[in-house]
Amino acid sequence: MKRDFQIVIWGATGFTGQIVTEYLHDNYKNEIRWAIAGRSLTKLQSVKNRLQLNDSVECLVGDSFDTESLKAITSRTDVIISTVGPYALYGKELVNVCVQTKTDYCDLTGEIPFVKDSVDSFHERAKTNEVKIVHSCGYDSIPSDIGCLLLQEKAIEKHGKPLSNVKLFILGLKGKFSGGTLVSMINLMKEAKNPEKRKIQTNPYILCKDVIAEMPIQRIQSFAWYDPMIEKWTAPFIMARFNTRIVFRSNELMEYKYGRNFMYDESLVVGRGIKGKLRGGILTIGIGIMIILMSIPISRWILVKTIFPKPGEGPSKAERKSGYFKMVLVGGNEDGGNRTEVFISDINDPGYGSTSIMLAESALCLALDSNHLPRQYGVITPSVAMGTSIVDRLKKAGFDISVSD
Fold this sequence. Notes:
Rossmann fold; seven-stranded mixed beta sheet
């Protein structure tokens, strides 16, 4: 039976939720049936008035801990977008309800423990109900996950087999973070004090079930080094620890399409020669100092109160427009042969401008392109849920995505 809406934005009054809402209004307002949802009707109506949304866009009220209100919302839509974080605190019941009401779901989480809990709690039931629960549909981890799929499909087409060694390099990056992202980061640091949660955050195969002893020990870069794959100095990329887990889960869900000996990592390119080495060292030290300061309650409190943005705050529209990201995934065999590359870039702030586009287009892909998507269900990854269909949408939205061998 046809539902009232194709897409509902849960958390539409939050910082990211408003950006996603504005994107759908500006680009698809007359093409889809959609609604906005949150805890406060007054705030929802304020967003609707400020963005001059069509009268047909309803305001739906619910609460992250009120199961019946969530059922009332999800049962009316084909897909729900969740922008309400930290997901470990506010996200689990919505996923549970989506599985029950057979509603596809996507979010932008970068929280390993939450995704792990979601997989353990809901994957099998979601498979049975033919529901797609798709986490991490933003800058974390669409470029990593979709880029790796494109690279391996090209390698298989050209060379008849996947590449055993793939690495993502951040070539350029400009953007800011919001108060909501900060709250999520703080919650992850608090969880890391628990030995079990810390183990979840450090195990590269934590989202996989079918792990055997012969699979490689994955290396996550933790200091500056010269990388021969790109012939430049590199530094640790702060989101590599999360993105790699998503890519490894994709490999398992696709029955090890990338191979059992598949190695994957991500790093930040900082330049050539002595300047690159120095820049990499300074950046690595800076990241280490910030992690230490954020792990100490008193220094964390001072930073939150004096420097960092508050919840609901983030980069302005002009700042988001001035942001960008450029990255390249480079793959090869152990001997360096069969080199293949995938280049991905966008001219928006990656954490909010680009992320909001990726999240909205993922929901549109799930809602409108379902006949062309892989018939795979459960708590799955972007590449497994949408295949390369999302690539066509992102290109139309202005992303530069190209494959080269």
